[in-house]
Every structure is written in structure tokens, then in C-alpha cells.
Amino acid sequence: LSLLVGLPVAAVISQSAHQTFWSSVSQSHTRSVLEFTVLVALGAAVINAVTGVALAWVLVRDDFPGKRIVNALIDLPFALPTIVAGLVLLSLYGPSSPLGVNVAGTRLAVLFALLFVTLPFVTRAVQPVLLTLERDVEDAAACLGARPWTIFRRIIMPAIMPATLTR
């Protein structure tokens, strides 16, 4: 464990002793890498918030054939070792893709990998919150004339927002 964690930390400390932090961060290539990282993370967060909530909604509120398969596919990134996940993504989105999509080595590939790894966290965080929401409140709002979007925005979204934002 000390080799896996201690050696890289020691290397970072050693390198930082020779250079000041701000001179390293202010270099143009470092700035561009940091900007890319922040933009991809924000993009993944927005996409995950929308798709994770929608996926959790469908899994909690609807019954359909193949629901167990979808549940298993959501948990797939938790079960796969990192190298296997990388190989799966490369085979799906690489040069010999059965989908006809080749994004290997691009910025889009980084976004796909980040989405693959993080989407289950949002879905699994929102699911229990949706399960605890009382449908009576939604039904009462509908009886009072609230449209489905208003019910979602005013009743459901405030309840699931903390779970969505923390993941």
C-alpha cells in the first residue's frame, strides 16, 4: 500500500519542492489541461443529472420487460475492473466499433469514460429518494390542477435535488 500511495505522493512533493506551485499551474499546457478537466467534469455532471434522474424515475415508477437487465447494466461499472471497463469502451467506441463510432483518443472519449463510471452513482442515489416520496402529494397536486411538469418541478425536484447534486 505504501508503494501504491506513498511513492506517487513522495514524487509529487519532491517535484513541488523544485518548482513553485503557481509557476507550474500558470503554464499554458497546465492551464489547458485544468480547463479541459473542469469542462468535462461539468458536462458529465449535467448529463448525469438529466439521464440519472430519468433512469431512476423509470426504474422506480415503471414496470417493463427487461427491468432487471437495465438494473444489472447500471451496476456494471461497479463490478468491472478499470482495465476491463477501458477495453469495453474501446471496443464499443474504438476503431473497430460495431456502432460505427470511433472516438478513441479524443476528448469525447474522456467524456464517455467519465459518464460510464459516474452515471450509476447518480441513479443509485436518486432511486431511494424517489421510493420514499409519497404519491398522495403528487396526486393531490394533480387534482388541484397542477400539470405534470409543475408537479415534477415543485414537488419531486426539491426532494431529489440533494441526491442529484451530491453525486
Write a concise keyword list for the protein shown above.
mainly alpha, 167 residues, 81% helix, 0% strand
Overall description:
- With 167 residues, the protein is an all-alpha fold.
- 81% of the residues lie in helices and 0% in strands.
- The protein has helices at residues 2-18, 21-25, 28-61, 67-79, 82-93, 107-132, 135-143, 148-166.
- Helix 6 crosses helix 8 and helix 7 runs antiparallel to helix 8 (148-166).
- It starts with a helix and ends with a helix.
Measured on Cα atoms, how large is the radius of gyration? 21 Å
Mean pLDDT across residues: 87
- Portion of residues in helices? over 70%
The H/E string reads HHHHHHHH
General shape? extended
- Total strands: 0
- Helix/strand-derived category reads mainly alpha
Instruction: Give the N-to-C terminal Cα separation.
Output: 27 Å
Estimated share of beta-strand residues:
under 5%
pLDDT < 50 runs, ≥5 residues: none
How large is the count of helical segments? 8
The largest sheet, given as strand count, sense and whether it forms a barrel, is: none
Summarize the structure.
With 167 residues, the chain is mainly alpha-helical. It is built from 8 helices and no strands.
SSE arrangement:
Blueprint lengths: L1 H17 L2 H5 L2 H34 L5 H13 L2 H12 L13 H26 L2 H9 L4 H19 L1
